[in-house]
What we know:
Layout: E1 19-27, H1 33-44, E2 48-56, H2 67-70, E3 76-78, H3 87-93, H4 98-108, E4 118-122, H5 124-135, E5 143-147, H6 150-158, H7 165-170, E6 173-176, H8 179-187, E7 219-224, H9 233-241, E8 248-253, H10 259-268, E9 275-279, H11 283-292, E10 295-297, H12 313-320, E11 324-328, E12 344-346, H13 351-363, H14 365-382, H15 385-402
Parallel strand pairs: 1-2, 1-4, 2-3, 4-5, 5-6, 7-8, 7-10, 8-9, 10-11, 11-12
Amino acid sequence: MVWRAPSGQVLGENILSMRICFVVDKFPTLSETFVLDQIAGCLERGMEVSVVCNEMAFGKDSNVDDARWRTLPGPVVSWWGGLNRYRSLLKRWSGRFWDKLSTCIDLANAHKLRNVDVIVAHFGHNGLRVARIMKRRRISAPLVTIFHGTDVGRPMHDNTLGCYRPVFEKGILQLPVNAFFRQALIDVGAAPTQVVVHHMGIRPGEIEYHWRSWQQGTLSFISVCRLTEKKGVEYALRALAGLPHRDWIYSVIGGGELLEELKLTAVDLGIADRVTFLGPRPHGEVKQRLRDAHVFLLPSVAGRDGDLEGIPVALMEAMAGGLIAVSTYHSGIPELIEDQKTGFLVPERDVAALAGKLTWIAENPGLCEPIALAARRKVEADFNADILNERFAQIVARLGETGSVT
């Protein structure tokens, strides 16, 4: 179920005074640009935005150090205030009492969530915190919870997804980022009418589409991601090692706990001379390297702890820019990529299948060009942040004015 705004519908006159409070983990942060873009969309539509977060990160990343985040119409506050510095310590030492202790501290700070028209919690655990406060009648604004990935995958893996039942009971709307998550939430008790797929997106108008053939040159593969298990970079390396076409290079941008292990894997596979691990790079450099590459690799897998992707924004950006996207039948990725039509998909952890797709791509640059163009059109149509932000604004405006999504 994907929410669609009625044709020709105009936001209500009260939109200019609509007060929305976003509840997030860290603000602002580059790893959650989808939150910043959604906030920007609300600001562009005249809404009064405030933020309650666990950690304020102003000045820590030049890529998101935008004056807009420092000068929001509403306040940006730490949920626990001065106690936040002890949050990790309390979580470690309170053991089984952590749940009750943290809820008590949340309740003591519930006033920070009052005097708003709609509360938007990013990630299920933040929605749960707000729902527990609502259960004690400390706040009454409609709650919208956006589910992204880990917040669904890990509880599914542990068979604890039912922990979100207070969110289903007290929240008015759940917005999972893909249909796979929607069904998972319904399966544990969420009312189908209150669970609506709302994709995250990008602004394709800010990304120039440029097709570049590898017919007469070196085929350039690239991955941009945190080097964690779910990104599947190990399988990209193993597939490339079996590629008959030898004129290729692979650039990996990003840091993470698997960086050194992946470097050793490249050495063991005998491809270290063709693979460059660049670590985290400035945003401008990343954009340039994407413009110079041909194929974007992200063979995502379910982590052993249940960690899942939503629909990776990095894939959308690559597709908008004219790269061929290669990924897996994982979580919501098939909602973005249709195999051999807007990109290429293989089963998770299937090195042979991945190598086969990469070999076909290497040998058929001419047949890949229409696929790249179709991928751009797919992003423009279904993952366009301007359109998605308008839909989101319609949703919260209706909630703020009527308390209902119907």
